[in-house]
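1st attempt posting a full record on here, be nice pls
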Amino acid sequence: MMSQMPRQAALPTCPSCAEPLDAGDRFCGACGYNLSVVPPSPDDHPTLTMNGSAPPAPLESGGTVHEAREAHAAPEAHAARETRVSGVSGDPGVSGGRGAADVSGVSAGPGVGDASGVRFDRPAEPDEYALQAPDPRVAAEAAVVAETAKVCVACRAGRVDGDGYCENCGHAQPRERDHMERESGPIAAVSDRGLRHHRNEDAFGLGCTALPDGSPALVAIVCDGVSSATRPDDASLAASKAASETLLAALPQGTHPQQAMHEAIVAASHAVNALAEEPATAREHAPHQNAPACTLVGSVVTAGLLVVGWVGDSRAYWVPEDRSSPPARLTEDDSWAAQMVAAGLMNEAEAYADERAHAITGWLGADAYELEPHTASFKPDRPGVVVVCTDGLWNYAEAAEEMAGVVPPDASTRPLHSARVLVGHALDGGGHDNVTVAVVPFPAPAQGAGSA
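the predicted structure (as tokens):
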């Protein structure tokens, strides 16, 4: 078998006569061609004629390309070619003559071309094209959509549809009421869904206003929806809104805070009762549903007076700033356990250890036995805070001393932080229920005045 020899690289050739060249040659040794100039375009003829020029005649049989090139490559043709190339490259030695005329002829009027079949009559294209100005209405609509679209809390990429699920990963989004925080002047409240419930059925209302004499008044309302009732979340929201709005409207007109609290509870009861007003057909389709219901506890704090009002088992606590002074619970539950204690049938520890302890005997709702708003007023002789909360908190700090031990020492100056600490205490304890708490400093500071 014959062995194959390695193929040597082809030697460079002269672009004019195709004779081999040596490395470093500046002129062809056969024809004298200047090798430093730009080589001419190859003889490339298109298959289709683009500008009407006829393709060159084919070579006669028996001849080769090299022989045909040699036949037409007269010395004067080489000189003309060299002059034309020099003129294109801007050779300073060419100021006119045939080279310059050929270059200007290439860029002449329309329809001008050469034998290569390429047109040169195209207008020069600009470096940049002017863009059409965007429609400001379209841009404004896009900005509104981008601003209002909710982004998934799980993948941080998908948009949230109207049902509350991510269009990208399908993750259910937390509802607005799952965790709520609000600060209004010197008072604050925090509400959380907790760790066991599928929704938050608590609600709160806060506000700051001024009495007729210009002194400040602080308002806090906390409501807990009755889970066994229909639409408990709607009931608590309606009650908290109606009660807080009634207080903020009545106090500036000179109504006594305790009377205003009574009227606020009545207004809240009417708001919850209105939720039960359904068409007869709706009641027929769902006869097992009972009326929406909730509990309520509220507080009004002025410069020298503390008023509380309640229906149900949500509570208010007094925690003095000086922790050497005793704290106190300001409300009495409307519950089975409280009735047993009041009747002397059980002591408090036994009653609240019973499984029936949290069965409420008073609430706001159309099916309540009788509305009995409870109100009480106090005149503390020292500064402190009022803790207004649902049983989702006091289940983990039931006694007044336990609640005082959880409230931060700077609660009167940092109410929002304190409310967060109290909610965190309930969640750390198990978070079996919704947790809502409002922290109200006493006396009402002057800077708290103003409309909420």
